[in-house]
Amino acid sequence: MSHYCDLAPGHPFHGPYHDHEYGFPVVDDDATLFERLVLEINQAGLSWLTVLKKRAAFQAAFEGFDVDRVAAYDEADRARLLADAGIIRNRLKVDAAIHNAGVIQVLRAEHGSFQAWLDHQHPLDHGDWVRLFKRTFRFTGPEIVGEFLMSSGYLPGAHRDDCPVQARILAAGPPWAQA
């Protein structure tokens, strides 16, 4: 079975994500965490390469993943997103992004940040994370939750132990390694 660490190095889209983002802890950056959640939701049923190729368009369409701006999106914004050929035009996924931005606003009000909410929950096993996300967010099944949490350092498994990136991730102190 091939692993992302086999596929990604040297690839124009997978390579930079694998080498510099995937599995590294996201610190004090709710916009990046929100982006990761939205991208993982949009990957459902599609390849990760499709999402990475559309990433710049997603960043533009969702205004840099500014949580407050996205949470305030109205029907005109929904229509704009659903007409944007640069992103994945799926109503359920667009609606989930807008709804989940509102949820993150509530979590920030209660915990100070999306990251602080995640830190407050940690450590949980994958199943408990999935149940928590299903109660809290829209469009978050086991695969989406697992990938989101691996990508942001809350669950192990983003890289093989012999991948050179894994040592850099461990040096960055991801939450899963501190549990």
- Percentage of residues in DSSP E strands: under 5%
CATH architecture: Orthogonal Bundle
Average pLDDT figure: 97
Order of helices and strands: HHHHHHHHHHHHH
Q: How many distinct helices?
A: 13
Summarize the biggest pleated sheet.
none
Tell me the name of the CATH homologous superfamily: Hypothetical protein, domain 2
Pfam families: Adenine_glyco
GO molecular function: DNA-3-methyladenine glycosylase activity; metal ion binding
InterPro entries: Adenine_glyco, DNA-3mA_glycosylase, DNA_glycosylase
Protein name: DNA-3-methyladenine glycosylase I
Any overview of this molecule?
Helix content is 64%, strand content 0%. By secondary structure, the protein is mainly alpha-helical. The protein has a single domain (27-152), classed as Endonuclease III, domain 1 (Orthogonal Bundle), CATH 1.10.340.30. The mean pLDDT is 97. Zn(2+) binds at residues 5, 18. This is DNA-3-methyladenine glycosylase I. GO terms for molecular function: DNA-3-methyladenine glycosylase activity; metal ion binding. Keywords: Metal-binding, Zinc.
Provide a short characterization of the protein structure.
Zn(2+) binds at residues 5, 18. This protein is an all-alpha fold and 179 residues long.
Protein traits:
13 helices; metal-binding; globular; 179 residues; Endonuclease III, domain 1; zinc; DNA-3mA_glycosylase
Summarize the helices and strands and which ones pair or pack.
Layout (H helix, E strand, L loop, with lengths): L3 H4 L6 H7 L9 H14 L4 H6 L1 H7 L5 H5 L3 H8 L8 H21 L2 H8 L4 H11 L5 H10 L12 H9 L2 H4 L1
